Task: structure prediction
Amino acid sequence: MASNRLSYEMLHDASDRPRTQTESSTLLTTASVKGMLVKADAGALRCPVHNVPYGTPLKPGDGEDEAALYERFIEKHPSARDSFEHVAEHIKGKHIALFLDYDGTLTPIVNDPDQALLSDEMRDTIRRLASVCPVSVVSGRGRRKVESFVSLPELYYAGSHGMDIAPPTEGRWSSTSEGAGGTEANPALRAAMRHVDEQLRKALKPIPGASVEDNTYSITAHFRRCSCSEDGDRVKAIVHEVVANLVANPPVLEEELEFPELKVTSGRKVLEVKPMFAWNKGRALRHIVGVLKKLSGYDDLFCLYIGDDRTDEDAFAVFSDQVAEASDSAMESGQSDVLDGIGILVTTIPKATLGTHTLKDPDEVRQFLEKLAVYGERDGRTWQ
Result:
């Protein structure tokens, strides 16, 4: 696979490189809260209507109950499954590129992350789609772990929120040429994450139900299985404290590698520790689209991105002319062009989102994908 992967230096510009401790102090925003250092993620996109970060659950307005709020939300973000004809209008006559989150999108959220297994029905549906259009799985998980879960070699896989991308090894989208779609991160990032993983496992070991997952270029602390909210709060406090200590006193890495600045982001009963540089699911999507255009010669790609998490909003942002120029995925990369596509949010509750459509759960995702496969086989524009 070495020839299928682009070097870190080729892919990332100078603003992406791991910085020294002195430079890190100007980028890591911290605040003292009861003796704890808490990282503020300054890069989060905010919804101007509700003045909250995209991905935040919404609250009913004055005189409005939960049912009325949900009805208003669905009116603005209709079901992609139930209004498939509307989606088909967008993609008619264009070449489709499909992007899928994993946890909460292709599989239900489960207490044990190692048991988030893909159903045979979902796998068969994705395999069917991969014969119609290029399919990418974009996840916060480590790439190799997601590949093992999905077990379809004809897909693109982007792990660690897109920091680690591998192209298909089989099927019509595979290629052995240089620049076929892979990326390879700076070795300092992996070395740093090993230190984060070691420190978090040691610090969280006394808390029942807490666990740590190594995602190669990011580390996830899970507290879904904690028996009480107090233990969940302890996990959050410890993660922030460990990260702040590592940034203040960076370990010496081998081969004179520089320890990168770090950031902490929150998800669904998880905290993720990642290197702080301009790479996210939005930039991963842009990278893969660029590769597909280069390999195919087509300039009429229409992207469908389905995801359930705040991190998926970075991908939704590349389709929005309102925020594309201000988003990390565009501004930091020098790419402010709006891509043709729509974001589909998987949710059962109203959220501030850049997605235009919704689906309730992985079962509805599968039903939508089945409709998309039928459309692609019958009416879709053929990829050569």
